[in-house]
Design brief:
621 residues; alpha+beta; five-stranded mixed beta sheet; binds zinc ion
Length: 621
């Protein structure tokens, strides 16, 4: 497992906050190294604050119902680039070639959006070559909208500077407009950001604070971090600060005054997450972690992740039985792995981050809290997984999990497919092929692709390596083909065992014998049907009249299986998946079946319907 990322960019900025105007003036330098095998004739810059500029942006014109970002900002946000210059080696600051005047000012193919900007270079940047950009910009924050903005004097400053898009090894730019359902994709590098705020403001930021000084009525802090792919910060004059240390990681928690009961849970959960995720997916490699609990009214800034900085949320009290603070903290910390360190493309394959992390979050909370990982009151418990299952089944047949963010039908579909159905699918694969197998496959994926921007093929390959082709195929069908399953017991029967009767041609001549029932011996069978396309191995439990039970394993590959048994007691009932391990099963209620108490009744019914059928045939014209 690598210990640091390939440094594709080095960003050095100075940011000055005007909390009254809600603006950030930025200036500095971005060095970008071409990580591709092909020369780059252009750059793509993401100017994501422009998503909040007017109601015609890609972001604000796609209103998708429920979910974060569904309210319009009451004050707009945007970013004005003042300077974008290419500085060649040996050139003094300010002498570079102006790139901004030749840049496209709108998103390719969308004249109304300004979040995805193509910047032609005067000469191509060769593979491994570097481009040094001088930048200056004025960022205006919107009222809190989708993870960024301000409320009063609280400022959550994210997606606030011109950010070079990611270029793949093959030379493809992964650039895209800021879409409502899409999170981010960027390349690794180092940040050195000096943040200048009025005295009295408390700042939390990505990375480590390496210095802080007073300059007149201002506080100027410098934050640095390498091997990360974004930089976000927050500033508020009301923040309370708590610090803790967990296994060598310095935790800094910023919260509104009076939030002690919530922050206590968040600190506990951060420790749990550092341990659990570290053990499973590789140690958290950074020295610090900043947890930001946004104030009431700024909820949309909560529940979000940036490198080494996460935001939580919820009220200060939090009903003690509902583990909202803990769940949110563990989930957002989990993104430090699947968004921060593994860094899959959240635009193209959001499930790789959100879904895999939802599974991991449930696993870690389950380890620590058991059956009551989500709710625990008066003996009534609810596991995180049960909540995901409900959501997963509601939309599971509508569309595939593996879709680019903008292609989901609604925010509801995005949340239920990319998060919940992925988690439920992984849980079910664990139930079918072994929890340990799935956990090892995810561990291999997370460790092998740390800092490596994997895609779904890499996840499938890790599952095949660890669990074999049947596991890989089930994962593929579940992700791409709307895979579903409904196991059901359709018939259970039992007969007295008898010696075979009939006409037999033997060497001694033809013999007619009648079958003789054997006292105390029964032959039974159960028919189990697998509806749907997910072929998952499953247990079948047979129960006998004498109270004994027996389990058999079915590989789930066929459409049905007939399980036969013979013994001293009559087969009474059968249950498929008796432990409820295949959580993606559409209906648990049909997983059990019993022998009909009398065989006469169904046969009488059959005869009656046959007679009715004949009658209608005769009387029809
Ligand atoms: Zn998430």
């Amino acid at each position: 497992m690598p210990t640091s990322a390939p440094e594709v960019q080095a960003t050095r900025l100075r940011a000055t906050l005007d909390p009254g105007a809600h603006t950030v003036r930025g200036e500095g330098e971005i060095v970008w190294r071409n990580p591709s095998r092909t020369p780059a004739a252009e750059l793509y810059l993401h100017l994501y604050l422009n998503a909040f500029k007017n109601e015609r942006t890609v972001f604000l014109r796609s209103r998708l119902g429920e979910g974060r970002g569904s309210t319009m900002p009451s004050d707009w946000g945007f970013i004005d680039v003042k300077t974008l210059r290419l500085r060649r080696p040996g050139q003094a600051v300010g002498d570079g070639v102006d790139l901004w005047s030749s840049a496209d000012r709108t998103t390719p193919g969308d004249a109304e959006d300004q979040t995805d900007i193509r910047v032609p270079l005067p000469e191509p940047c060769p593979p491994g070559g570097e481009v040094t950009l001088e930048v200056a910009f004025d960022a205006k924050l919107p009222t809190i909208t989708e993870r960024t903005g301000y409320r009063g004097s609280f400022h959550m400053v994210a997606q606030w500077f011109p950010k070079v898009a990611r270029r793949t090894l093959a030379g493809e730019w992964k650039h895209h407009a800021f879409h409502r359902l899409s999170e981010f994709d960027a390349d690794y590098g180092s940040y050195d950001v000096t943040i200048d705020v009025p005295a009295g403001f408390v700042v939390g930021a990505t990375g480590e604070r390496v210095e802080e000084r007073r300059e007149g009525g201002r506080v100027v802090g410098r934050y640095t971090q390498s091997s990360v792919h974004d930089f976000a910060w927050t500033a508020w004059d009301q923040f309370q600060t708590e610090t803790a240390e967990h296994d060598g990681v310095a935790i800094r928690l910023l919260s509104p005054p009076g939030y002690g009961p919530a922050t206590e849970k968040e600190l506990w959960a951060a420790g749990l997450a550092l341990d659990c995720y570290g053990r499973r997916y590789g140690r958290y490699p950074y020295k610090g972690l900043t947890i930001v609990h946004p104030p009431a009214g700024a909820e949309e800034a909560g529940g979000m992740e940036y490198p080494t900085l996460i935001t939580t949320g919820g009220p200060w009290y939090g009903p003690p039985v509902v583990r909202l603070a803990e769940t949110l903290t563990v989930h957002e910390f989990g993104h430090q792995i699947f968004y921060g360190l593994v860094a899959s493309d959240e635009h193209r394959s959001p499930f790789l981050d959100e879904g895999v992390n939802s599974y991991a979050e449930g696993a870690c909370l389950g380890e620590a809290l058991g059956a009551g990982s989500a709710v625990s009151v008066a003996g009534l418990t609810l596991q995180t997984e049960a909540i995901h299952r409900e959501a997963a089944l509601a939309v599971g047949l509508d569309d595939a999990i593996a879709r680019p963010s903008p292609q989901f039908a609604s925010a509801r579909h995005y949340a239920r497919l990319a998060y919940s159905r992925t988690a439920t699918l992984l849980r079910s694969l664990g139930g079918a092929f072994g929890r340990d197998t799935v956990d090892r496959a995810l561990a291999r994926y997370a460790r092998a692709y740390r800092f490596a921007h994997p895609d779904p093929r890499h996840l499938l390959a890790a599952f095949e390596d660890v669990g074999g082709p049947a596991l890989r195929e089930a994962l593929r069908v579940g992700l791409y083909d709307r895979g579903w399953v409904d196991y059901t017991v359709t018939e259970v029967a039992s007969n007295k065992h008898a010696s075979p009767g009939g006409v037999f041609d033997r060497p001694s001549g033809r013999e007619t014998v009648s079958g003789v029932p054997e006292a105390g011996r029964f032959d039974g069978w159960a028919l189990i049907v697998r509806r749907g396309s997910l072929r998952l191995p499953v247990d079948i439990e047979l129960s006998f009249e004498d109270g004994s039970t027996r389990r058999v394993r079915w590989d789930g590959q066929g459409e049905w299986v007939r399980v036969a048994c013979s013994g001293p007691s009559e087969l009474r009932s059968a249950v498929v998946d008796p432990d409820g391990l295949i959580e993606i099963d559409e209906r648990f209620s049909n997983n059990a079946g019993s022998r009909a108490p009398s065989r006469r009744a169904p046969r009488a019914l059959e005869r009656l319907s046959y007679a009715l059928g004949l009658l209608t045939y005769w009387v029809s014209p």
